[in-house]
Predict the 3D structure of the following.
Amino acid sequence: MNDVASHYPWPASGRYVRAMMVMGLDGATVGPDGGSRSLSGPADLAALLAIRSHSDAVVIGAETLRVERYKPFRAKPEFQESRAARGLDVAPRLVIVSASLKLPWEEPVFTESALRPLVATVAGHDAAWLDRAREHAEVLVAPGARVEPAWLLDELYGRRLHRIVCEGGRGLLESFAAAGVIDEWDVTLSGIAGDTRFDLADTREQDGFLFTRFTRRHHG
């Protein structure tokens, strides 16, 4: 894990926002299973965990939470010494952006995470709906009709959450990109297009462009 983490260093100090995603050759960000897992693999998962290991917060959209069935964010013994040395909490804090507040509150990610999740939503919910949400998470109510990335990041920075990973979904990543708040993109390109697998044949970089060749995988 430490070797993988060396490819994804965090700045020693200051605020930093990473966007992380896995994408198929056809541009899809979800695979045949309806989520990202069927596009991913052990190496991509190792990169995800390495980036999270020294982050303050992981930001996701509500649909991503529902589809991907996130597990609780617990303290991991192998990272405690290095997190403490960086002044980080025992685990990253999960931040969920949800306009509707229709979330699976019974999921272990709400009941068993080391730190209470944050939910960012919009104004206009009735008191009972907000009270229910506050039983399971700290709720942030945006001042406008949508959760603006700049506003959300200011709220996180105010809670000393400076190392931010935005894991999607696609709409949330697009809103962060449009707002100009992303400092780094960590993109995994999967050799999958639809139901067909391809193998990496060549890769090169020139003038800031990354050129790749993938060829169809033949069996037998």
Observations:
- The beta strands are 16-23, 57-61, 93-97, 118-121, 138-141, 163-168, 184-189, 192-193, 196-206, 209-216.
